[in-house]
Amino acid sequence: MDGNTPDLAVKDGNRLEVARKVFGDRVTVSQPFPGKPPLWVEPTDAKLRTDIAQAAAWMKEHRGAIEDTLLSFGGILWRGFPAKGPDDFELLMSGWKPFSKGYTAGTSERKPVKGNVLESTRTPPEYRILLHQEMAYLETTPRLIGFYCHEPSPVGGHTIIGEMRGVFETLPAHLQNNLLAKGVRY
Description:
The protein has seven helices and five strands. The protein has 186 residues and is α+β, with helices and mostly antiparallel strands. The strands form two sheets. Strands 1-2-3 form a three-stranded mixed sheet. Strands 4-5 form a two-stranded antiparallel ribbon. Helix 1 runs antiparallel to helix 4. The longest helix is centred in the middle third of the chain and has 11 residues, at 63-73.
């Protein structure tokens, strides 16, 4: 926490109200799937919907709340912000340091679009990409990942968001213990 934000990591039903308070009245905060990620954040302020510089400044100003919200909710879906291409997306994400190791050893070929903005994949459309954990197979993993959709797929193309902490908790105790004993971590 940055010391200026209330604790969003609360486990009771108040975390949504806390998120609404720390993000302020320039955005609407909702949780369409209660108890499951992601938290949805949508601008209500016209400048946040139309001015990329204003939106990027707002995100930088609320970085502490965003970080805490990610820990509490497991993800954020930003809807209605004015990202119109890779330059805008890079500006929105400029408040966070890029992963120092870059994108390495991925299972889907990706090429840079601009700076630290990469394509999602070059996997042929007849293949499905299942839920995965970005570079979890590496000793050092990215702390955050952001996705931006410039051109939606006419069919399919959904990005699956899942909370792996919840998946682990549903595994039988003997399997959890086996994974922990072997040092498997995702």
